[in-house]
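Hi there. Long-time user, first ticket. I'm pasting a complex I've been working with (about 226 residues overall). I'd like to know whether the download I got is complete or cut off, because the file seemed smaller than I expected. Thanks.
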Amino acid sequence: EVQLLESGGALVQPGGSLRLSCGASGFTFSTYVMSWVRQAPGKGLEWVSTIGGSGFNTYYADSVKGRFTISRDNSENTVYLQMNSLRAEDTAVYYCATRVSVEGSFDMWGQGTMVTVSS
Amino acid sequence: DIQMTQSPSSLSASVGDRVTLTCRASQSVSYYLNWYQQRPGKAPKLLISDTSRLQSGVPSRFGGSGSGTDFTLTISSLQPEDFATYFCQQSSSFPSTFGQGTKVEVK
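Hi, the file is complete. Here it is re-exported in full:
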């Protein structure tokens, strides 16, 4: 059974940092593109970042470029999102999701982890 | 970025109703249009990819159609578990963008 389990969400002050993790099981992790998608409270979905299977190719939404860094450890079947210089508008549930390709549908989703940026 | 607009924002329907949701792109996305279902407090779930490809395990009462800029998701006979919010997403052009969602509520 495919499982994606996010962790690391917390309450953090503006300007602070946080690292999210997403552990994967039930599929060959290294062959899948991985993404982070977020959803602000009561709002829609926003793609945040994507990383290729090897980890060399990364992509970011303009809203997070220069502040967030996506990475992966294929030996640990885990993808990370390092979030720096956090802003109130980064408050959201963060989901990790698999993709067959860099620009494709988001096929499998984790349950999400909540990030709240507030003083 | 390609803007995705869904209509209506919400609708009220009864079990057994035929429901049609619409998604419009600000420019052509060819057939690279995907639909997701999100139940309250849950993660989104991919229902349909590439306009009309039903994902494994998704009931056949769900159907997708369209091309270019105009797409529809149809639920042929609404079931109790279908009351949820539905999002479209274009995967034609970077960055991927989502519609704002259509909430299907109990009438």
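A couple of notes from our side: Residues 3 and 25 of chain A are 5 Å apart (CA to CA). The mean pLDDT of chain A is 97.
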